Amino acid sequence: VQPVESGGGLVQAGGSLRLSCQASRSIASINAIGWFRQPPGKQREVVATISRGGTTTYKDSVKGRFTISRNSAKNMVFLQMDGLKGEDTVVYYCYEGGTYSSGTYLPDVPGWGQGTQVTVSS
User: Fold this and answer.
1) β-sheet with 17-22: strand ranges across
2) What integer pLDDT is reported at residue 24 of this predicted model?
3) Kind of pairing, strands 9-12 and 17-22?
4) Count of other CB atoms within 10 angstroms of residue 28
5) Neighbours of 53 (CB within 10 A)
6) Up-side HSE of residue 104: CA atoms within 13 Å toward CB?
């Protein structure tokens, strides 16, 4: 079973979107949940993570624009994206678990979902 992402779409630069991730199981049983993206021709980027304890991490380029949060009762994690830029255009994936390394949780546990496309127009 995989997490299920939703909420992507087309938005103008400067606009906002809220991505949702329905976890595949109780998020209390997962050390962390995060969002990653992989721009064409580039390395996978961890965008944001939230640990079981509630600690959050963000990629430098999204700090102050994106906010990760969760609803533990519904086993859902959200990514509020404000001030969107063209460089944010890509498919976003939710992932569960992962190794803690270099200040974040890596998406190294296979089983993420289909992703949700975010397109920012200028």
Assistant:
1) 4-6, 17-22, 76-81, 66-71
2) 96
3) unpaired
4) 9
5) 7
6) 18
Q: 10 Å Cβ neighbour count for 73?
A: 7
Nearest to 27 by CA among 97, 105, 117: 97
pLDDT digits (tens, 9 = 90+) for 14-50: 999 999 999 999 999 999 999 999 999 999 999 999 9
The order of strands in the sheet holding 116-121 is: 9-12, 116-121, 90-96, 32-37, 45-51, 56-58
Q: Are 115 and 6 in contact (CB under 8 A)?
A: no
Give yes or no for residue 112 having a pLDDT over 90: no
Tokens of 49: 């993570």
Tokens of 15: 């606009």
